[in-house]
Amino acid sequence: MENTLMDTDNIITSDNNGYSNADAILTTVNSSDSSNYEFPALFKSKTLIEVCSSSWCRSQKAKEDVQPYLRGCKWSPDGTCCLCIINNDGTHLVELPRDLYSDIPTTNRTIDILDSVVHIKEAGLVYDYCWYPGMNSAIPESCCWVTTKQNSPIQMWDAFDGSLRCTYRGFNAVDEMEPAISVTFTQEGSRIIAGYKKYLRTFDVDRPGREYSEHKIGSPASCFATDSNLLAVGSWNSSISLYNVNEMGTYKSIGKMHGHTGGVTHMKFTPDGIRLVSGARKDHRLLVWDIRYYRRPLNILTRAVNTNQRIYFDISPCGQYLVSGGTDGIVKVWDAKTVNWKISLDQYDSVTDNVTYQFPLHRDCCNSVAIHPIRPIIATGSGQYHFKDPAKYLDYDFPKCVEENQRDRSEHTKEDSIYDNDLRFSCDSENSLVFWWIGEVPNKS
């Protein structure tokens, strides 16, 4: 990652080191008067402009069944770069082009090809990752993130050179190191909360190693959401547990929420800290909860989730927009002023698709979306593991499958089309990270 600070052709419409002049932008946002910062309007033009893109391919020496695809992306808290997890290829860090720190792109802007400024080739499946919440490019020691992966402890990585800073290790009853399933920082960034199969373990950021406090839980902690002293813990048993975490790291249970039909994979609090949005595997619903009255969800939003893959969603810093991808490649946007997704659900109304905007951005699964913390930019990632279809490609390996799919597409009968609708068996795979401008579009025709 360069030591920088943050101050097209493809348009989609609904159905060198050193510091730049953008220092003033971050200075305003990071100052004590940051509450006066007005977040720019989003989706007003109902048009998305592709400004940057990147993709990853399989190395020549890799096995044929190795499929690199993006499994998640998250903006850094200062907005200068985006962290990506690539299946079978570790962690990649890409930077936002400098002209997007302050300029407004036009419809004829050239699309930038993103190169990884940091690449960490991690062996094993990365379970979860999280930026340090106080990350600021002006303070190099604050530029880091943590990951937890298969057969490894929690690792903290430097965002400038990709070096390993330290590790945080949890041990089971027989003194064997076990990997965490999920990980997050507390909001002030002084502690790391890690979720395991039977415990929540809290590490002091300043004291790496095996020193931690733990809290016993009844089911594995699959994901976290934090706001102030509140901690929401999602589980593979489809429940969500709410805890109050005091300054000493002690957990006090508030209650449990039930409503999903599959394991909870992602959650996020709204900026006001009153509502919680949750999503689950093989569950087409996003549930909106009021944590003051958590017995039943406030509202239900629909998206396409046909696999066990984690499908990320995001909430804009202004709290007005909720954006989610789906296994159908469509990005859906809910505007709180239009569909009132924050109000109470009428139990007599049937669950319908009340989306405000939807953009068909990818031909494969859109598994992640991330809204920029300062600028009207959204990052989307696509990809999933594609199985060989036993009904059509029994005698073909995956590379040959791509050629056969293009050559024999016109020969397929109507009965065969049922397989084309299943993206897991489709050969039209996509592996990309794309940045889209979602603000005002000048000179829109």
Largest sheet: 6 strands, mixed
DSSP strand count: 32
- Which runs of at least 5 residues are low in confidence (pLDDT < 50)? 16-35, 408-420
CATH fold-type name: Methylamine Dehydrogenase, Chain H
Spatial extent as radius of gyration: 22 Å
Helix content: under 10%
CATH architecture: 7 Propeller
Amino- and carboxy-terminal Cα gap? 37 Å
Specify the number of helices: 4
The proportion of residues in beta strands is 35-45%
Helix and strand content put the structural class at: mainly beta
Structural domain count: 1
**CATH H level: which superfamily?**
YVTN repeat-like/Quinoprotein amine dehydrogenase
* Mean pLDDT metric: 82
Commentary on this structure:
There is one protein chain. This protein has one domain: Methylamine Dehydrogenase, Chain H (7 Propeller), CATH 2.130.10.10. The protein is 6% helix and 38% strand. A hairpin with a 4-residue loop joins β9 and β10. The two termini are 37 Å apart. It has 445 residues and is mainly beta. About 7% of the residues have low confidence. It is globular. Strands 1, 2, 6, 30, 31 and 32 form a 6-stranded mixed sheet that branches. A 4-stranded antiparallel sheet has the order 3-4-5-7, with no helix packed on it. Strands 8-9-10-11 form a 4-stranded antiparallel sheet, with no helix packed on it. It contains 4 helices and 32 strands.
